[in-house]
Structures are given as structure tokens and as C-alpha cells.
Amino acid sequence: MTDKQSLSSMQAEVDAFIQQFKAGYFSPLAQMARLTEEVGELAREVNHYYGEKSKKQNEAEKTVAEELGDVLFVTMIMANSLHIDLTEVFQENMQKFNQRDKYRFERKDGQVHEAE
User: Fold this and answer.
1) Which domain holds residue 68?
2) Alpha-carbon gap, residue 102 to 78, rounded angstroms
3) pLDDT tens, 95-104?
4) Could you say which DSSP state residue 110 is in?
5) Locate the NTP pyrophosphohydrolase MazG-like domain: which residues (predicted)?
């Protein structure tokens, strides 16, 4: 892996990994179940590190970063199998958020919503 990879190159790397197996991509529903499982594991780690629930003594040590990585990996698997270019999706979402949410929160630059 290079220091900084694009989403496209990461999706291609994930695809190359999946293509080496006969099973290939699972169904979208199975992938959604896996993504939900990974998000649950992320929630558990966030709760351990930032919440009130401490780990049990016999629980394996994991990190929030590791679980976020798992969520990203499974997200890329799902995007690949559905032929979704995450770079395009990201760019479209940023455009949406920059327009829709430009004044949603108090801004550091002091700008406020312009009168309609």
C-alpha cells in the first residue's frame, strides 16, 4: 500500500482480494448483515474506549481504528459488488453537504445563513 491511496485504488485492491476466491462476492443482503455486524463491533469498541462499559478481562484487545478499518473494507466489498464508485459517491455527497449543511452549525468564520 502506498502512503495515500485513492478510494478507486483501494476498491481495486479489495476486488483483487475477493476475486481470488471461488465464492466471490456474497449477496447484497449477506453483505448488509456483515456490515451491520462490523458496525456493532465498532460501537462496542467506542463504548469501551469512550463510554462507561469497560472490557472484560478475557476480551481480546481491539481498537476503534481496527474496527473502522473493518467497516471500510466491508463497505468497499459491498460497493464493488453493486458496481458503485465510492469516489463519485463521495464527491456527490460532499457537494450535497457543502450546499445543504453550509450553515447548519455555527461556523468558525462567523458566516451565517444568507437571507432567502
Assistant:
1) 7-100
2) 30
3) 998 888 777 7
4) -
5) 27-105
Is residue 34 domain-resident?
Answer: yes
Q: Alpha-carbon distance 77 to 28, whole Å?
A: 10
Assign residue 24 a region (left: φ > 0; alpha: ψ between -120 and 50; beta: otherwise). Answer: left
Give the cell for residue 106: 455555527
User: Quick check: 18 and 80 in contact, CB under 8 A?
Assistant: yes
Stated pTM of the model: 0.82
To which residue does cell 453550509 refer? 102
User: In this predicted structure, what is the pLDDT of residue 93?
Assistant: 93
Cβ atoms < 10 Å from Cβ of 7 = 17
For residue 87, report the phi and psi dihedrals to the nearest 5 degrees.
Answer: -65, -45
Q: How many domains does the chain fold into?
A: 1
Does residue 20 belong to any structural domain of this protein? yes
